[in-house]
Specification:
The chain contains nine helices and 17 strands. Strands 3, 10, 11, 12, 13 and 16 form a six-stranded antiparallel β-sheet that branches. The chain is α+β, with helices and mostly antiparallel strands. It is 27% helix and 26% strand. The longest helix is centred in the middle third of the chain and has 26 residues.
């Protein structure tokens, strides 16, 4: 079988079918991965040429500490204490996720025939097909890749749990509580987050990812179409929702990130000299369109291996569970880039800050309950009994009123 022809045909068909809107074919990465895909860090990669050839598995990023007041001299001389010292940060790819899809011989024969039609329809590199072929294989891929993408997201969220940096507004890397309410406050909610961002010298819009109260606050503000009684309009956070943060970071925990401080780092091994047919398998990369929640298409490039399984598979009871066929393995090596904790020099006020800040959201609905403490003691005294002298008898009072009325008439 012409496996490379099949792969080429699959590329062509993906480009043609990408516009389909079948719900089972949508690959929707949730929250954290979506945030990374839309706002990925742009860094200076030292070994980019080796990476593109598939020769290196580590991405190496260069950075330099910014200057501090300790570098400054008050003397007009030719001496200097400043040297340009570059540091290198290696981003590992310890995470790997893959799925396997079995394509039986009968199915493969159909796909091969369709691939031949696709190749015949190519004229000078222009596809003349009116109807895309291999829809079945493409649907299977997208349906199963959705689970793969969700697993990648889960691993990234877990990795982030141990990479929080120092928050200069508090002087530590702990999770700090932020209260969100229906009215603006000087010390809570969005105002506090913006003040903290200033303390950490974060420029640009904040990236927020989490679930629970912080998302509810965001949804509440989306209902505002004007100013409230205090003259405050909507205070949206544009939160990236990820339910996995509740179990991996904590209930109502959320992260705030400066753009450029965090990124998704995939690495493809089936490229360059490492792509092609070897040992009865075809090794290649496959670009898969990823439909984001906002309707825009992004793309992930997966490593693939197409391998023939020449014996049927039986379970312990002797029942055949899989026939002879081709196994398509789709996987990806990847890592999470977070700016180094030592990117600021010793003595810098931002030492330990990496642009990733950990918070806990608390809801304030405006109602404050006042309750006594458990050991409160209440002292009560009986009401004083009125004396007989201070209260006039009813008969005397009536007589007095009658005399006053008679005098006024006279």
């Amino acid at each position: 079988m012409k496996l490379i022809g099949l792969i080429t045909a699959l590329y062509v068909n993906i480009a043609m079918i990408a516009g389909l809107n079948d719900p089972q074919m949508k690959v929707s990465p949730v929250g954290f991965l979506k945030m990374l895909l839309e706002n990925n860090a742009t860094t200076q990669v030292v070994n980019m040429s080796e990476l593109l050839k598939g020769q290196d598995q580590q991405i190496k990023v260069r950075y330099m500490n910014r200057g501090t007041e300790d570098d400054v001299s008050d003397r007009d001389d030719c001496e200097t204490s400043v040297t340009a010292e570059w540091q290198t940060c290696e981003i590992g790819h310890g995470m790997y996720s893959k799925i396997g899809i079995l394509i039986t011989d009968d199915q493969m024969r159909t796909y091969e025939a369709e691939a031949a039609k696709t190749a015949a329809a190519q004229i000078n590199g222009v596809n003349t097909l009116q109807t895309p072929l291999m829809v079945g294989l493409y649907q299977t891929l997208l349906t199963k890749v959705n689970g793969l993408v969700q697993k990648i997201d889960a691993n990234l969220v877990s990795a982030m749990a141990s990479k929080w940096g120092v928050n200069a507004a508090y002087g530590d890397a702990n999770a700090h509580e932020i209260t969100f309410g229906t009215t603006a406050s000087m010390n809570d909610g969005v105002v506090k987050l913006l003040a903290d961002a200033e303390a950490n010298e974060v420029a640009g819009d904040l990236l927020v990812c989490g679930s629970g109260v912080v998302r509810q606050f965001d949804l509440y503000n989306r209902f505002k179409n004007g100013f409230d009684a205090a003259g405050i309009g909507a205070m949206g956070l544009n939160t990236y929702v990820d339910p996995k943060t509740a179990t991996k970071w904590g209930a109502n925990h959320f992260g705030v990130f400066g753009k450029g401080s965090i990124g998704f780092v995939p690495w493809n091994k089936n490229v360059g000299d490492y792509a092609g047919e070897r040992g009865g398998s075809a090794f290649f990369t496959l670009p898969m369109p990823v439909q984001l929640a906002n309707g825009e298409l992004s793309q992930l490039m997966f490593d693939c291996q197409l391998k023939y399984k020449d014996c049927p598979v039986y379970d312990d009871n002797g029942k055949k569970v899989a026939d002879r066929g081709w196994v398509l393995l789709v996987g990806l090596h990847y890592g999470l880039f977070v700016a180094p904790n030592d990117m600021y020099a010793v003595g810098d006020p931002l030492r330990g800050v990496n642009g990733a800040f950990h918070y806990i959201a608390k809801a304030d609905d405006g109602a404050t309950a006042v309750r006594p403490t458990a050991d409160a003691v209440f002292h009560t005294e009986p009401a004083p009994t009125p004396s007989s002298e201070s209260v006039a008898p009813a008969s005397e009072s009536s007589a007095s009123e009658s005399e006053s009325a008679s005098e006024s008439q006279a």
